[in-house]
Amino acid sequence: MRIAVFGSGGVGGYFGARLAQAGEEVVFIARGAHLDAIRKHGLRVESYLGDFTVAARAEQDPAAVGAVDVVLVAVKAWQLDEAASAMPPLVGSQTLIVPLLNGVEAAPRLAEVFDPPGAPVPHVIGGLCRISALLAAPGVVRHAAIEPSIAFNRLDGQADARVERLRQAFDRAGVKVDVAADIHAALWTKFAFIAPFSGLGALTRADAHTLRSLPETRRLLQAGIEEVVAVGRAHGVQLADDLPQRILRGIDAMDGATVASMARDIIEGRPSELEAQNGAVVRLGQAAGVETPVNAFVYACLLPYELRARAAGGR
Fold first, then answer.
1. Measured distance CA(44)–CA(59) in Å, rounded
2. Residues near 219 by Cβ (< 8 Å), separated by ≥ 6?
3. Using N-to-C axis directions, what is the helix angle for 183-204 and 215-234, rounded to 10°?
4. 173 and 18 in contact (C-beta within 8 Å)?
């Protein structure tokens, strides 16, 4: 398959490199020193599962690439609108667009651009991934924790040969892959984990071990998860009764040193996904008439840091 990775940092770099390693034709959309490094030395992945380097094409301008079979969108949530405006040269009549962003709003936002009412086939499908990875240096992705996996499917759940081809590509790459029967439930399940974990991690400057071990932060974590689940159900998403307990068990099993990418961004003074995570919980909760006091408190406390980072970055 011909695959463009739009957003070649930790997430996009890792999954794109695995696909390239397996022989797929992958093009990384990158810029600056990262672009130069990939062109000169390839993209290196440092992982506890094994290090490797792939020689792959990298471009700054999507117009130099043309239409592809799949676009993996792995930018930060606050970069999505900019990415969507640059992506049209990559999108042909049968192109799949797979957002791998945190949160639950990326697919609907992309569909507004690429799937107008009456379009013959949808371009945008739902997607998510599980991994802790970051851009360690130009041309170097570091996979720090969490067994990598990916899930996707059409938002309407209908069978699609393009989706199956992509599943087979990830399977050949040795990546745990799932065509989720209910992609909406899968997205909200991850959302119920990542938003409270990210927000509380940023607010407390604490890693997974600290958040889950202190009774006070564990109670906040559980309450924040339960709020997201309640909001999802209010929006019609079918979520299991024991989902909060399953998410907490997953956090208990994580590497204790894990810190969410949003927390790292806020701690280090960079723009973050606050609006797409805790901010989205609050907004979606208000729209459905569901109170979200923990997420609202976290959002309010982190908002000054977010606004300061955006002002400093000119965004």
1. 17
2. none
3. 150
4. yes
Q: What is the pLDDT of residues 87-121, one digit of tens each?
A: 999 999 999 999 999 999 999 999 999 998 887 88
What pLDDT digit, counting tens, does each position of 115-170 carry? 988 878 899 999 999 998 999 999 999 998 889 999 999 999 999 999 999 999 99
CATH of residue 193:
1.10.1040.10
Rounded to two decimals, the pTM is: 0.93
Same domain, 162 and 263: no
Whats the size of the chain, residue-wise? Answer: 315
Residue closest to 180 by CA, chosen among 208, 205, 150 = 150
Distance CA 47, CA 157 (A): 33
* In a shared domain, residues 263 and 170: no
Which structural domain range is residue 243 located in? 185-312
